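hey can u run this one w/ NAP bound, need the structure tokens asap thx
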Amino acid sequence: MSLIQHLMSNGPSGFGYGSTAEEVTAGLSLAGKCILVTGCNSGLGLEALRVLSLRGARVVGTARTVEKARAACADAGGAAVPLACELSEPASVRACVAAVIEQRIRLDAIICNAGIMALPRLEKGHGFELQFFTNHIGHFILVTGLLPQLTENGRVVMLSSAAHAMAPRAGIEFDNLAGEKSYSAWGAYGQSKLANMLFAGELARRFAGTTKTANAVHPGVISTNLGRHMNPIAVASMALFGPLFLKDAAQGAATGIYAAVHAGAANISGAYFADCNVAKARADAYDAQLAGRLWEVSEKIAAQ
Ligand SMILES: NC(=O)c1ccc[n+]([C@@H]2O[C@H](COP(=O)([O-])OP(=O)(O)OC[C@H]3O[C@@H](n4cnc5c(N)ncnc54)[C@H](OP(=O)(O)O)[C@@H]3O)[C@@H](O)[C@H]2O)c1
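ok here u go:
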């Protein structure tokens, strides 16, 4: 199949590269459903908040500050609940978990969408490389804290990336989680996105025998604020040529939403989706031993 044919055609799910979040939820009523979306104030999270609200879901929209969350939720109309959740601050993540529990909110899905990408220089949070800490550890604390709030058929969706393939050869460099032995912007981003995938896989194994699911998705390549740390020439080229080869936010939000709410994904767990269909990730993204070790290490970090 040529590239053009791939971009134009749909996969077994009935959706494909060009499908939008509105298309994957067309005809679906999400009334009575409650879905938490992290990073609801920008890019794919903002589009997810809009479309899920449009279909009648009550969205718990989290952002780094409650002001940002409030503004995004107000724009989405409906009954969205704004909460602060600064993923690089475990106290903020725990306060978010506590607020959900206190308000007795039961979650039909958690979409772990927020993220940072390719910080040019090593930055740290609580002694750990910041992309690993924000993208993985922050969501690890959030999701493990919210597991009791998941409904019987609850789904967890991790926004990973095809860039997981840029993770170090070792997968997760457990002896370099502070990034001080060596650091590369894309290697660290890739590691954090591989961690998102390993977390979804381990969660899926822990959900075995239940009707809960956990999956990871690659949303596509979309020009959003995520590129803020990229080289300005690359950003300018994306702005100029982007429309020719990038997805827009409506298409970018589709795969995560498909995995979170579509009936076609209800019985799929431990998978990696791209373009609204099950796809193939790097081999070690499915490594149960690596995922188990990451879970143990993450628990220790979260307990600090
Ligand atoms: N865009 C792409 O091409 C692409 C490709 C593959 C994967 N992804 C993944 O898709 C997800 C969404 O990305 P996007 O393109 O929509 O990016 P975006 O527009 O930059 O949105 C990212 C969101 O994450 C939030 N965030 C960043 N740091 C945070 C922190 N410490 N605590 C809490 N929230 C934080 C941002 O908040 P602020 O606005 O306040 O900073 C924003 O709401 C990310 O996980 C990304 O890795 C994107």
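The pocket of NAP is lined by residues 39, 41-45, 63-64, 68, 85-88, 113-117, 134, 159, 161, 218-219, 221-222, 224-226 (CB under 6 Å). anyway lmk if its weird
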